[in-house]
Write the structure tokens for this entry.
Amino acid sequence: MKNQEKKSLFSIEILGIILGLLWIAPFYLMVVNAFKTKRDIFSGVLGLPGTWEFENFVQAFIDLSFLKSLFNSVMITGLSVGIIIIFSSMAGYALARNKSKISGVLFFVFVAAMLIPFQSVMIPLVSMFGQADMLNAAGLIFMYLGFGCSLSIFLYHGAMTGVSKSLDEAAIIDGASRFQLFWKIIFPLLKPISVTVGILNVIWIWNDYLLPSLVLSEANATIPLKMFYFFGQYTKQWHLALAGLTIAIIPVIFGYFFAQKQIINGVSEGAVK
Amino acid sequence: MNNRSMAFWLFLTPVILALAIVVVIPFVYGFFYSFTDWNGLSATKFIGFEHYINLFQEKEFMNSIWFTIKFAVASVLLLNFFGLVLALIVTRNIKTNNLLRTVFFMPNLIGGLILGFIWQFIFVSVFGDIGDMLGAEGMQGWLSTTETGFWGLVILTSWQMAGYIMIIYIAYLENIPKELIEAAKIDGASSFQRFKNITFPLVAPAFTISMFLTLSTSFKIYDQNLSLTNGGPYNSTQMVAMEIVRTAFSDNQMSYAQAKAVIFFLIVAVVALTQVYYNKKREVEM
């Protein structure tokens, strides 16, 4: 009995490892071929490179204006997610503490807005912001607040059920304003959900392509946007294209390495709710 | 915090403004524009249902709807299959389970645009090379026919998102009481019987969640479509989201594209509302 179980566990482990190798194969092929010369790729893509060509990475790094794109991505993602967390947590708190009809209606509107796909508002949105001369980074950050607040408010609203109302009352009696009460007492208690909200929004905004492509000029391009231009420039030159893709992925792998547990928990929480 | 208090409204003003300006107003305007000859700046006349009549007769648009539906069905099935298989593997007591979770989940963190480019290389060069080695004609020219382009998109999406669905199944699998499985083992139930009678029923809610989640995500896919096939050959692998973007920003037919966007909204809303209905029904039954 015990022996049989060990055997079946062993075969499951083998199956898992085979699937795991299959799953990372695309990354392996990308990195390996990014180190090859054009001729090397032509003669075979599966093996290791004959000579390791670091030159590809240097050129891709320059052509992607990588430091600039990285800076743009960090700024836009950082500011957008910061603003989403600040305003959604305040709204989630206000809506959860107010039991009136209007509060219920507002909450419903925020949740219902999640039904609307981006493409259904995209055209008038771009036209409106264009006429207001707001097709720039500031306009983009404001758009991310509009698109991101619904899910974030929903998550904060849910988390508020675990925060006792007596905290509010005690603080008000002590003479604190609503604003102080929220930032000094409630917000710190919401930290776990803030981590979830932050992670979900970072993954989305960091990788978003379509919205920035409609809003930002090439000079302010984020990594996905720059990658798109770069790739168009190097079709049929896989050694350079793959080096560029490898560079573009590095920041994400880096983040995943340090915050793996929080990321998986955050995503799990966001999906199951 | 009552609703006449200043604080209530102050706390809500930023998000109400953002939602109104970014989502609600464009949505309402868009609906209105779809009945006019709006060109992105101004509308001169009301044309009723003309755009809607035209779009149902446009071959390319109807083709994109069918292609999207077929794609969504195939991805939903494969994604849930792989998601469940991966979750069943990594929730067993094996040495590599943490490492495997990390690996399976990784593609989710990288944008669809970048992943599509990587897979373009795989389908074109790697598949071509393997085909040469095996002498298999069928491995050549992936992405250059509608059929293989379709499967290319399905494979890319399944690979990218299976780890995400796995996470959902893991959450449910880890909630199954260990005693239940142990008791069934003592009673002599085979591992297949245990899966069929204990695991599967307890994981069924996760199936509903994942199914609708994958369905609505696959309907809205754009980045992967753009970077993997770019809609080719001859726009035959173009999905609805991409079709709308093209009509608006390449062909400059703003109000016509907006009418397509309204239809797109209706399809997505029906899928989502069906999900809400099922979830409610399930909660009542429980």
In short: Chain A touches chain B through 91 residues (CB under 8 Å).
